[in-house]
Write a structure and sequence with these properties.
The chain is built from 5 helices and 7 strands; from the N terminus they run βββββααββααα. By secondary structure, the protein is of the alpha+beta class. The chain has 3 domains: 70 residues, no CATH class; 50 residues; 42 residues, no CATH class.
Length: 199
């Protein structure tokens, strides 16, 4: 699967995997933002995250206190204005709780090399679809990185190639066993530069 569309709370997120990049477009009623992320910039660490609008929860809690206060005093002292305020507070409190509930989101975060993250809603359209897309993204990234960087070039320096192979291992594009095998071959094919001692 090379394309994923996620819609929630009037926001549409679209992800498209190409041969060497991920295209991400986020659209809402007010704005559209497109980002292109090269596979080299995807670190690959995937972690769970969640977010919600805590301000709405706090306001809803205060509103609930207002409902109890207005209705309590209104009914006890038979003051119609307080009863009306109590019902109005109840409607507002319910709306705030709904907004809070809709704002709750559960994400997969994939780290980028610049310290930012790619965010994928875990359950939109469903968990299996999101997980399958992320697996396809990581496979496409690994295939591209291996094809582009996982070979020995006799015309390039030893240290530069060793650093490249270490990078591939660090982002989990290759295994430690593959790194060790390539490291052994590199020492045979491209001799390490001897460090000069003295002046």
């Amino acid at each position: 699967m090379k394309h994923l569309t996620q819609r929630k709370n009037f926001v549409k997120r679209e992800y498209t995997i190409s041969d060497s990049k991920l295209y991400f477009n986020m659209v809402n009623y007010f704005d559209s933002n497109e980002v292109v992320v090269s596979f080299e910039n995807i670190d690959g660490i995937k972690v769970q995250s969640s977010s919600s609008n805590q301000t709405m929860l706090l306001l809803a809690g205060l509103g609930l206190f207002g409902v109890v206060t207005f209705l309590g005093f209104g009914f006890y002292y038979s003051i119609n204005e307080l009863i009306i305020l109590g019902y109005a507070s109840a409607v507002i409190t319910l709306a705030l709780f709904v907004i809070y509930w809709l704002s709750r989101e559960s994400f997969w975060k994939i780290k980028l090399t610049n310290g930012n993250y790619l965010y994928f809603l875990k359950n939109v359209p469903n968990t299996n679809t999101t997980d399958a897309f992320i697996a396809e993204l990581m496979k496409s990234r690994d295939d591209y990185l291996r094809e582009s960087y996982f070979f020995i070039d006799e015309n390039l320096g030893y240290e530069d190639q060793l650093q490249t192979f270490r990078w591939l291992k660090n982002v989990n594009a290759i295994t430690k066993k593959e790194f060790d095998a390539m490291y052994t071959d590199l020492k045979k094919i491209v001799k390490p530069e001897k460090k000069e001692i003295g002046y």
